[in-house]
């Protein structure tokens, strides 16, 4: 790594996420690659970044209680990450955390800033066991202490009730299990488990997934394409199709990039052909790169907007995958910055876009074919409400019950999969399976 230290990199990453609306995983990888960060420093930086973002509203409330007036954005980021370290990370002594914050403050904004940072942090450290924070009411206290914006909390409360909403909000700050998916084209699950040993265990959620017991795996196996990183819930889309895997099908993925589900389906339904579409050609390059590494030969990528009808596709596909863009509420555990972007109007807008994609995708399904609809969100407007509207307007489609093998995930009464983040240690997810029938009179 260059002469820039781990805390400075953590600051740069956090500033990009907070002030420039960056995404945590993308921003972290960018800086890790730029500075060739070693594994030990990666773990430290990741903990500071994710911890500070997950607890941002609470950290801001503490800072506001212990500072007078407006704090400049750059200084605020230094203070937030330092308060997080003081309260949540015990491997580094408090004096060292404060000393490093002062050095960083001086470097970023001058000597006077260093003195300001020192005074704020020492005051917080002295009162850490009794911060004596003020709240307007119990609801505000819950939202701030769990760093959940009130608008997001209200959305969840209206849809799931107070008790369930609070469980979901609390789960956002918990860690999800990291998982990988084995590649059946190159190795059996049993053989991969033998090669990785105690580093992995079998998933109870998806039969094609393995849960990581430690983060450092044999990278040569990844490079050779024996496994790929994919969340257990995301991997359930391929498992939810439920058709015999040895038969030949024509499959279309209308919103494929970055391609995890397309790659999974193509390797699972190895005798079938699959067209993966996306409107962004640079994202399709990710699918091209991964299919080569994984040894997948039955995927063709195509640049196409999922909201626009391609008449050459009409009534041509046995299986159509409609994994639509969504608000991402289900993946907040791994992308905590998302919770600060959720508004009612944003969800309503994206739900309309989703419906447009679903309504256009129906044209591509053959008679007796399957249309899979999935999202990584838990807002009902993006999920079951879209499905109910679709079924009301398209009498030639029926909702089929999803059946999973070797999974603890239970299908809801209406046959869909609704995975809530407080119920399983994976992403929140929604999957519905629709079948095209003869149109009813």
From TrEMBL:
All residue ranges annotated as the SAM-dependent MTase RsmB/NOP-type domain in the record = 156-437
Biological process (GO), any one: regulation of DNA-templated transcription
**InterPro entries linked to this entry:** MeTrfase_RsmB-F_NOP2_cat, MeTrfase_RsmB-F_NOP2_dom, NusB-like_sf, NusB_RsmB_TIM44, RCMT, rRNA_ssu_MeTfrase_B, SAM-dependent_MTases_sf
* Compartments where found: Cytoplasm
Keyword annotations for this protein, in alphabetical order, are:
Cytoplasm, Methyltransferase, RNA-binding, rRNA processing, S-adenosyl-L-methionine, Transferase
Molecular function (GO) terms for this protein are: RNA binding; rRNA methyltransferase activity
Kindly list the positions annotated as binding S-adenosyl-L-methionine.
255-261, 278, 305, 323
Fetch the Gene3D superfamilies from UniProt: NusB-like, Vaccinia Virus protein VP39
Q: Which residues form the active site?
A: 376
Task: Give any Pfam family that matches.
Answer: Methyltr_RsmB-F
What GO terms fall under cellular component here?
Answer: cytoplasm
Highest taxon of source: Bacteria
NADP recorded as keyword: no
Q: What is its EC number?
A: 2.1.1.176
> Which reaction equations make up its catalytic activity?
cytidine(967) in 16S rRNA + S-adenosyl-L-methionine = 5-methylcytidine(967) in 16S rRNA + S-adenosyl-L-homocysteine + H(+)
The record's NCBIfam families line, in alphabetical order, gives: PRK14902.1, rsmB
Family designation: Belongs to the class I-like SAM-binding methyltransferase superfamily. RsmB/NOP family.
Function per UniProt:
Specifically methylates the cytosine at position 967 (m5C967) of 16S rRNA.
Q: What is this protein called?
A: 16S rRNA (cytosine(967)-C(5))-methyltransferase
* Organism, as annotated: Gemella haemolysans ATCC 10379
Encoding gene per record: sun
């Amino acid at each position: 790594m260059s002469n820039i230290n781990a805390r400075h990199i953590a600051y740069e990453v956090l500033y990009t996420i907070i002030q420039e609306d960056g995404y945590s995983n993308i921003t972290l990888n960018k800086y890790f690659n730029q500075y060739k960060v070693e594994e030990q420093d990666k773990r430290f930086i990741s903990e500071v970044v994710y911890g500070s973002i997950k607890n941002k509203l609470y950290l801001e409330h503490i800072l506001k209680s212990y500072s007078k007036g407006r704090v400049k954005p750059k200084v605020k980021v230094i203070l937030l990450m330092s308060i997080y370290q003081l309260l949540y990370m015990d491997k580094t002594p408090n004096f060292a955390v404060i000393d490093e914050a002062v050095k960083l403050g001086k470097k970023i904004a001058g000597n006077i800033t260093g003195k300001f940072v020192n005074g704020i942090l020492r005051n917080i450290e002295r009162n850490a066991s009794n911060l004596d924070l003020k709240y307007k009411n119990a609801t505000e206290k819950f939202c701030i202490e769990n760093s959940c914006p009130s608008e997001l909390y209200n959305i969840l409360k209206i849809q799931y009730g107070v008790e369930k909403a609070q469980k979901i909000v609390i789960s956002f700050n918990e860690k999800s299990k990291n998982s990988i998916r084995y590649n059946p084209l190159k190795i059996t699950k049993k053989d991969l488990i033998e090669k990785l040993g105690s580093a992995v265990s079998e998933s109870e959620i998806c039969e094609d997934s393995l849960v990581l017991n430690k983060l450092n795996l044999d990278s040569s196996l990844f490079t050779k394409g024996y496994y790929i990183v994919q969340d257990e819930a995301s991997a359930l889309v391929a498992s939810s199709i439920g058709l015999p895997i040895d038969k030949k099908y024509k499959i279309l993925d209308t919103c494929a990039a970055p391609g995890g589900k397309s790659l999974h389906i193509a390797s699972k339904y190895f005798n079938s052909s699959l067209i993966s579409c996306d409107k962004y050609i640079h994202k399709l390059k990710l699918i091209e790169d991964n299919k080569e590494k994984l040894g997948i030969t039955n995927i063709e990528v195509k640049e196409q907007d999922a909201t626009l009808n391609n008449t050459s596709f009409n009534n041509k596909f046995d299986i159509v995958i409609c994994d639509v863009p969504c608000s991402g509420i289900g993946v907040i555990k791994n992308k905590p910055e998302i919770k600060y972007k959720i508004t009612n109007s944003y969800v309503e807008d994206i739900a309309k876009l989703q419906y447009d994609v679903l309504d256009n995708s129906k044209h591509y399904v053959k008679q007796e074919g399957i249309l899979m609809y999935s999202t990584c969100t838990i807002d009902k407007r993006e999920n079951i409400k879209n499905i109910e509207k679709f079924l009301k307007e398209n009498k030639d489609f029926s909702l089929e019950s999803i059946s999973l093998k070797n999974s603890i995930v239970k299908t809801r009464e209406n046959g869909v999969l609704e995975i809530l983040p407080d119920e399983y240690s994976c992403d929140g997810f929604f999957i519905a399976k629709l079948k095209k029938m003869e149109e009813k009179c």
